[in-house]
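Chapter summary example.
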Amino acid sequence: MIFEAFKRHRAERPDAPAFLIASGDRFVPVSWRQFTDDIASVCWIAEKHAPGAKIALLGENSYEWMVAHAACIFSGAVAVPVEPVLSADDIAARLKFVGASVLLHSSLYAEKAHDVAARFPGLSTGSFGSRKTDFFLSTAVKALGLLRRTVWHRDAPDPERTATMVFTSGTTSEPRAVELSLRAIETFVESTSRALPMAPGDRSLMLLPLHHIFGIAATYTMLANGVALGVCPDFRRIYDAFERFRADFAFLVPALADILATKIEHKAKSAEESLGQPVRWILTGGAPLSRRTYERITALGVKTISGYGLTETAACYSMAREADVPRPTSAGRVSGADGVETKVSPDGELLVRGPCVMKGYYRMPERTAKAIDAEGWYHTGDSGRIDEDGYVWITGRMSRTIVLSSGKKVAPEEIEEKLLALPGVAEAMVSGKGETREIRAELYGSVPEESVRRAVAALNQTLPVYQRIKAVVVRDEPFPRTASGKIKLS
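The structure predicted for these 490 residues follows.
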């Protein structure tokens, strides 16, 4: 699907922009002809010098990063995205674990790549845009010119083979390499393309981090639909990116939606008034969207759509449709992609089966067997329900459910949602403490601590006795978060 879409855009829209690259206060378009030519050159290099290799990618969001990733999955290599904020020791350990032999990096992370290579003898490195890389590319261009045959003259690659390995730790500290097939990524593309209106000529942003599956899958979805992508390597410049590239819609995590809302609110009463054109919709995923953020974005005239998925399901499980009547706090309807099945287990866990599910955790057969049962159902670890219309409602993590000494069960996420609605509370984490498992809340706020405590005391009066918060800790700084924006659990 993705390969065929790229071939189609190359043949039918060669001069149309695939990417928009910032240049001063303007931008430079990169055509579909150039994009697919560059992919073909890198495919030739990969097949000649590292056939079937695991190739790690380290860098901020960039055009070159996407060329390299696409070339990996189309040439038979395995792309291994690396989170840039990791230490050189952590990156080297992960690359050794999966057996990567090549590390491609941006100039911004050249020093870190050098440090990784020093810890991993035998690892070949290459920098986007370096003279060495330019030499390889020019050699590839000449060779392909003589051959008169590129990757685009072939059939689509095998969709079942491992295309990428994405590291995940969920909300824990143990990293796992998730093996995803090309078909898994294409399942997200299929599901999202059916749910949301996208067409050639539309504009959006390559804003989500590309070391995370949500960013990868969303980017391929937009490219497959012919959307021109403004490259935004710094998420803090989200408002500037919307304004510069005149984005029609975007895929965001809730934290970015909050940043965008704040920027717009400082300038005008609506997104259209602030940016000079309407924003048709934003889709949020990667972490739950609070009702407060939903209401802020909606009040600015932007349709807010939620989706739900995990790295292990190529970010695919459910997604609201653009034409649906809004259902705040739901995670949208179950995927409409062919072959995807969803259900709720007898104990309330959300399960999914089908082509979106990972092949497994690399070199972790026991952990894979715990996650995917004998019938092929992937156990998400999230509790929830699916209503008669197919909408998914997530109530929390199975592992986080607090069982009180009285035997009553409390979903901490339900209380966290109420805490986040309090004035001045920016972040909240609820847990059970001690033998009695009394409810404890840890908060980060933007108002004085005493104001936060008064607000929590007032909330307690509205809660059932067993749900009342017995202890409150107010933090001086925000919680540490995962790459997808989820609060890390200790």
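To summarize the output: The chain has a mean pLDDT of 91.
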